């Protein structure tokens, strides 16, 4: 998946917060770089003290966030100085670089200490995808699926993989959910409803997406007249729409999610037609249960045609 086509889930600041080297004050340094007897014994097996300090730093970072980092010396320098002073009083540092194989060996030791598995695509991805597909039935919004992945990895004691890996997995899960939706709505939509939705999506009819998206801002006569126009166009289809949504078995959150894809963005006519139809059905159902419609049903506007 090319970089510009990857699913956007986290902001740049959130990515940095999760995958960047943490910044510790002295209190946090003492907390995260303190070693118990087991940790000290394992770290002491490393021959060179400067690499022991690196191992202590990476262990502390992993305790803070279960991610395998690739820190530069400069980003670790203050922590390494603290660790050297705290654990090895006579040790001083010169700038050095950590080779990939050295970092891998140190992280293997860190993971052994904390009892966590390193991420492995073949071993871990199928189970994670299966779990997330179940979670998507409740809420398929990308951030919700991403958060469910992080929670699963924590429970299974698996290190969080690269952001690009999680982007691809979340995209796969959402794609599978939408494929199921595609197949179900293709079978559930009547010819008449399909034609109405296609006309609405194409913008060729008198009733437009803009009218569907814009609910009444208040209860003045002008705004209610707009709502009446929407009501008269949608009401004849409400039974069909409700039947389709029942066949899709969408959760309340997913109905809201797909409705918002129509009501917050301009419809893209290049996207899958059936998925757009599903989103539109959700938006129609949402309008059908809106506060303004309830007022209209209870009042005299619709019955009197005012």
Kindly describe this structure:
By secondary structure, the chain is mainly α. The protein has three domains: 11-114, no CATH class; 121-184; 189-304, no CATH class. Helix content is 68%, strand content 0%. It has 17 helices and no strands. Helix 4 crosses helix 5 (73-87) and helix 10 packs across helix 15 (273-288). It is elongated, with a radius of gyration of 28 Å.
Topology:
Blueprint: H1 12-19, H2 26-33, H3 37-43, H4 49-64, H5 73-87, H6 100-114, H7 121-136, H8 142-155, H9 163-188, H10 191-202, H11 209-213, H12 221-234, H13 238-248, H14 252-263, H15 273-288, H16 291-298, H17 301-304
Protein name: DUF4158 domain-containing protein
Organism: Congregibacter litoralis KT71
Domain DUF4158: 9-173
Summarize the structure.
The protein has 306 residues and is mostly helical. It has 17 helices and no strands. Helices cover 68% and strands 0% of the residues.
Summarize this structure as a short list of keywords or feature phrases.
DUF4158; 17 helices; 3 domains; mainly alpha; 306 residues; disordered C terminus; elongated; DUF4158 domain-containing protein
Q: Taking all residues together, what is the mean pLDDT?
A: 84
| Backbone structural class | mainly alpha
Major pleated sheet: none
Fraction of residues in H or I helices: 55-70%
How far apart, in Å, are the first and last alpha carbons? 55 Å
Helix and strand element order: HHHHHHHHHHHHHHHHH
As for the number of domains, it is 3
Overall, the morphology is elongated
What are the low-pLDDT stretches, counting only 5+ consecutive residues below 50? 266-271, 300-306
Q: If helices are DSSP runs of H or I spanning 4 or more residues, what is the number of helices?
A: 17
Spatial extent as radius of gyration: 28 Å
Domain DUF4158: 9-173
Protein name: DUF4158 domain-containing protein
């Amino acid at each position: 998946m090319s970089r510009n086509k990857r699913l956007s889930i986290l902001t740049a600041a959130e990515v940095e917060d999760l995958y960047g080297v943490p910044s510790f004050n002295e209190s946090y340094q003492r907390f995260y770089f303190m070693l118990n007897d087991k940790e000290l014994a394992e770290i002491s097996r490393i021959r060179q003290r400067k690499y022991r300090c690196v191992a202590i730093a990476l262990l502390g970072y992993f305790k803070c966030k279960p991610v395998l980092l690739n820190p530069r010396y400069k980003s670790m320098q203050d922590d390494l100085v603290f660790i050297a002073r705290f654990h090895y009083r006579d040790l001083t540092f010169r700038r050095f670089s950590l080779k990939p194989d050295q970092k891998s060996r140190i992280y293997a030791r860190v993971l052994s200490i904390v009892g966590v598995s390193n991420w492995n695509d073949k071993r871990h991805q199928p189970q994670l995808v299966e779990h997330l597909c179940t979670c998507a039935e409740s809420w398929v919004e990308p951030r919700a699926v991403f958060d469910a992945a992080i929670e699963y990895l924590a429970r299974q004691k698996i290190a969080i993989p690269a952001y690009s890996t999680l982007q691809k997995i979340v995209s796969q899960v959402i794609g599978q959910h939408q494929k199921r939706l595609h197949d179900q709505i293709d079978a559930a939509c009547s010819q008449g409803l399909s034609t109405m939705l296609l006309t609405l999506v194409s913008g060729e009819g008198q009733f437009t997406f803009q009218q569907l998206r814009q609910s009444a801002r208040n209860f003045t006569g002008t705004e209610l007249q707009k709502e009446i126009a929407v009501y008269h166009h949608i009401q004849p289809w409400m039974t069909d729409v409700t039947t389709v949504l029942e066949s899709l078995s969408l959760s309340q959150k997913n109905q809201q999610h797909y409705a918002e894809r129509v009501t917050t963005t301009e419809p893209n006519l290049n996207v899958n037609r059936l998925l757009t139809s599903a989103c539109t059905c959700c938006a129609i159902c949402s309008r059908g249960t809106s506060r303004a419609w309830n007022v209209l049903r209870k009042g005299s506007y619709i019955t009197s045609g005012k």
